[in-house]
Write a structure and sequence with these properties.
CATH superfamily of the largest domain: P-loop containing nucleotide triphosphate hydrolases
Strand content: 5-15%
CATH topology of the largest domain: Rossmann fold
Mean pLDDT: 91
CATH architecture of the largest domain: 3-Layer(aba) Sandwich
Order of helices and strands: HEHEHHHEHEHHEHHHHHHHEEH
Strand order of the largest sheet: 2-3-4-1-5
Helix content: 40-55%
Largest sheet: 5 strands, parallel
Structural class: alpha/beta
Number of domains: 3
Shape: globular
Number of strands: 7
Length: 348
Amino acid sequence: MRKANPYTLTFGKEPTQLIARAMQTHEVIESFLGEPSTQQVYMITGVRGSGKTVFMTEAARTISAQDGWISVELNPERDLLASLAAKLASENELARLFKSAEIDLSFFGLGLEVKGAAPITEIETALQKMLRSIKKKGQRVLITIDEVTNTPQMRAFAAAFQIFLRQDLPVYLLMTGLYENMSALQNEKSLTFLYRAPKIHLAPLNIGSIAEGYRAVLGLTDSESLAMAQLTKGYPFAFQVLGYFSWEHPDEPQRSQMLARQYLDEYAYDKIWSELSNKDREVLYGIARVGSGRIGEIRERLGLSTNEFNPYRQRLIRKGIISGQERGYVRMLLPFFDRYVIEHYGLM
């Protein structure tokens, strides 16, 4: 019987073959588990396919496995406060705890009615009472939200969460999102606490770790596995996609690379490209055309001054599309993306 492919083509699904981000994961876990906790919120950002969901899932699994932790995953498209109350109330042990504390949640249709107690009619008040009961029991609540955007539901939840923090309630939040979506949420004047929340920007994976993974799983030589790892540029989705097609076509490396490029174009780059402004695309086209990456040459090609070029450079760096670590140069962070940009810029 043929072994199952250990790599995945599905966004957000935790693959069998995973390159861990040990230091960043440790930072989140230690901050939340500390006595007292040094942080209660982390924002995880990165370009599409950078492994945000997998990172959050891995950290949340480790934290929620500890004694006294309750883990709740919320859908950002729903009423987040109502969903949090419903999920907490659906746990039998917690339902008994809330009932003994005479917290009547019948108004919200959650089935928790307490004789002689007035029903609570405001969701934030209900959650405050629920969280106080959880705190008295010595427990903590970990909330995870994937791919947040600046919606009314998310703003209402974040504003309430800010109040929970001020009241020293045992709530912890892990949320992922694209840079521009996180920034839009942070820019809300009522949500100033998000500016102070630590952010983890998921940088490219270690090339050596990718090479070792390919060597062990695909049976490649050291030089073959390193060359293959370098093609991915450390982009987590490319690591999975190239590994997947190399597993399916072990004796056809050129075909595997072609299929990987096509898949990246259709399932990652088309979406990334569609979310860029016309000026962002123009700047990327200049970068792609100037193979050296030298900023002076790119600006000259685009006819931009330093002051005109820098805002786009900074934005593309924050989006995780280019790197500006080398002074005077910028580099594409996504594999084969320079080719994609050149092919698609003329179609605008």
